[in-house]
Amino acid sequence: MPCIAIVKPAHAVCGRVRAGTRRSVKVSDLLALPVEVGAAVRRRRLFHPAGVLARGRIERIAPPGQGLPIETGDVVGRVSKGVGLPGSVPDIAGLAWRMTPGNRPWDVLLATTAVNRVLLLPATSWDHTTYSSLMPLRYQGGVWWLRARLTTHLDRPGLSLDTITDRLARGDLEYSVEQAAGTGEFGPLARLTLSEVIPPDRDMSFDPTLNTAPGVSLAPGWLTGFRRAAYRRSREGRDAE
Hints:
Layout: E1 3-4, E2 13-14, E3 16-18, E4 21-22, H1 27-31, H2 33-42, E5 50-60, E6 73-81, E7 93-99, E8 106-112, E9 130-132, E10 137-139, E11 142-150, H3 161-170, E12 173-181, E13 187-197, E14 217-218, H4 221-237
Antiparallel strand pairs: 1-2, 3-4, 5-6, 5-13, 6-7, 7-8, 8-9, 9-11, 10-11, 10-14, 11-12, 12-13
Helix pairs in contact: 2-4
């Protein structure tokens, strides 16, 4: 049976490895192949390739035990543009952060959406943006949504990452993080503060399908499988950890 060559011989997908031996290929892996190819061509992430990495802190506001188990602690966050369009051109804005409860990484990735929580919506400015988890999180038998809103006012129009860098050089960026059970209303969960820019040569690969808190998982499972394969293909395509 012929092989499908991806980028490198080591990444070839074969129906038959050697006589009498077969290796199964998941559909999610095949669907994610374009992500690896795109990342290899760009030598960086296919999606959200341009961003600002920063140290910060998250502070829980919701009462203990109410909703998702996000706790107060240090974070590393990233503000990004989804397509990576230059300058202040509108784009899908992204917000990600990594928490380390119990020294175990928990990654949260959000993107700007319309009011229905799942429809991506380009942002024309960093101000007045709403970020959504796009997929709900299962926890203790329930389904929870996450969203965030920038509460720091930025007085520059457009969606330039220089605006984020300049602001962090002068002060903090603060976000209100909210949660909603199922189709219910959103309520306060935490306050996210980004404070110190990390040099651009020290990037971080976020993966919410692998790095999560005990008992927390993305839903539905089939879409999580595709995202997991896409993140892995992206790392492989650009030789990232």
